[in-house]
Specification:
The chain is an alpha/beta fold and 422 residues long. It has helices at residues 57-73, 81-92, 102-120, 124-129, 170-191, 211-229, 263-276, 291-300, 316-325, 335-338, 341-354, 371-378, 391-407; strands at 7-16, 22-30, 34-38, 135-136, 138-145, 159-165, 232-238, 245-246, 251-254, 259-261, 281-283, 305-308, 330-333, 357-361, 383-385, 412-413. It has an 8-stranded mixed β-barrel, surrounded by 5 helices. A 3-stranded antiparallel beta sheet has the order 1-2-3. The protein has a 3-stranded antiparallel beta sheet with strand order 8-9-10. The protein binds 2-phosphoglycolic acid and zinc ion.
């Protein structure tokens, strides 16, 4: 057995994410390699996500790494991912990582994988995905922000996104999203003299506009850019409906629009939006326990990805339940929703067997880590959701540009299901 990947040390420290929140960063040092990963954080988190940190926050998590986790991991092989992730589960011994923290597990799990890749002298995507991994994901990027990601007046829908398709290269796809982002700024400036160029955590524009105004602006920008670049750029939305849902009233509360919709009305509303704006992608159109409505809308619309984020929380059990119900046809993969790479991979394998579309995703509070760029390719996710601009987003986009260059002639855009719009 090779000793190159033998773990010699695990070091944890406190750093900050893009929102300035404290987060954990972990270094895993092997005999011949090194890996480093820091954990992201969500703002509109799903209820089924693991607990990020133990009581006592990041400081307590670091203490746990030093006193409890590092002594167990030193001497293991960094390429024994399952063994490492199993050790993390055993040390925690709860079903939601509340003892050691899901973000602690995440940082260790990803840093170990990188350390193993580095020990073998391989890029992470090839170490995890093998030499056949060569397909670049399409970038799905946030252009206008609303909902919980914005303070003050903004659309109630959380994200208005762009996704180019039929593009020959990742670089051209990412450039198209940047063009759309710029075009939307111009339109917002021309429509609202008070627009001051404000941007959300994810680098998307924040403006005092309604849902419909945001969609009209996106439609104009996507059309202009599609004509300019010669391939289609479609619109997507993340409704993040759990943030709108009132369990007491059993209604979705659209505060900006002073409107309240019951489940049936929500379904009609979303269906109308999909048809009118030829939406290619709709995330969390219903709250996180409403599998039935997810199933109903999936049945009723064509060529539109209906994606579960809070609904599945990257959790294999929740996904299996959703599959039985025929809820959604796509799933957001956020590794820190479940804690470890092994857990996320188990979910992705179920996704693939079911023919759903896996979408690798950032979090609204993220770091300049680039690992998800590699994970998207290694785990064959045809789409990556990671913003258009802003440092933490650009870190992932730029890494994909580097990988595309590294792969040269072997680089290929992933197979995307047929989606409408553009
Ligand atoms: P987050 O939300 O704030 O939980 O990262 C992003 C999303 O809903 O996709
Ligand atoms: Zn979401």
């Amino acid at each position: 057995m090779s000793t190159a990947t033998l773990i010699e040390d695990v070091i944890a420290r406190k750093v900050f994410n893009s929102r300035g929140e404290e987060t954990i960063e972990v270094d895993v040092i092997t005999t011949s390699g090194f890996g480093r990963a820091s954990a992201p954080a969500g703002e509109s988190r799903g209820k089924a996500e693991v607990v990020y940190y133990p009581n006592g926050g990041v400081d307590e998590a670091i203490k746990k790494v030093e006193e409890l986790i590092a002594p167990e991991l030193v001497g293991l092989n960094a390429d024994s991912q399952e063994e490492i992730d199993k050790a993390l589960h055993e040390l925690d011994n709860t079903n939601d990582f509340r003892v050691i923290g899901g973000n602690t597990a995440f940082a260790i799990s990803v840093a170990s994988a990188e350390a193993a890749a580095n020990s073998y002298g391989l890029p992470l995507f090839q170490y995890l995905g093998g030499y056949t991994a060569h397909e670049l994901p399409y970038p799905l990027g946030n252009v206008i922000s609303g909902g919980k990601h914005v303070q003050g007046k903004a659309p109630d829908i959380q994200e208005f996104l762009a996704i180019p398709h039929g593009v020959p290269s990742f670089l051209e796809a990412a450039s198209a999203n940047v063009k759309i982002h710029k075009k939307v700024k111009e339109i917002l400036k021309s429509k609202d003299v008070f627009f001051n160029g404000g941007r959300s955590d994810e680098g998307a524009w924040t403006a005092n506009i309604t849902n419909m105004e945001a969609l009209e602006i996106m439609a104009n920008a996507c059309e202009e850019v599609s004509n300019e670049v010669g391939f289609k750029c479609s619109i997507g939305i993340d409704v993040a409906s759990s943030s709108l849902w009132s369990p007491e009233k059993k209604k979705y509360l659209y505060k900006r629009e002073e409107n309240e919709l019951n489940s049936g009305e929500q379904l009609e509303f979303i269906k109308e939006l999909i048809e009118k704006y030829q939406l290619a992608y709709v995330e969390d159109p219903f709250h996180e326990e409403d599998y039935e409505s997810f199933a109903e809308i999936t049945k009723k619309v064509k060529n539109c990805l209906i994606s579960g984020d809070d609904l599945f929380a990257t959790n294999n059990e929740r996904l299996n339940y959703g599959l039985k119900m025929h809820a959604a046809n796509a799933i957001i993969i956020k590794v820190n929703q479940v804690g470890t790479l092994t857990d996320a991979l188990e979910t992705i394998e179920t996704v693939k067997r079911a023919g759903y579309v896996p979408i690798m995703s950032h979090r609204s509070g993220d770091t300049c880590d680039w690992h998800i760029a590699h994970l998207a390719i290694a785990f064959k996710c045809p789409i990556i959701k990671t913003g258009v601009v802003e440092g933490a987003r650009i870190a992932k986009i730029n890494e994909l540009i580097r990988i595309e260059e590294f792969l040269g002639d072997r680089a290929k855009m992933a197979e995307l299901p047929i989606i409408q719009g553009g």
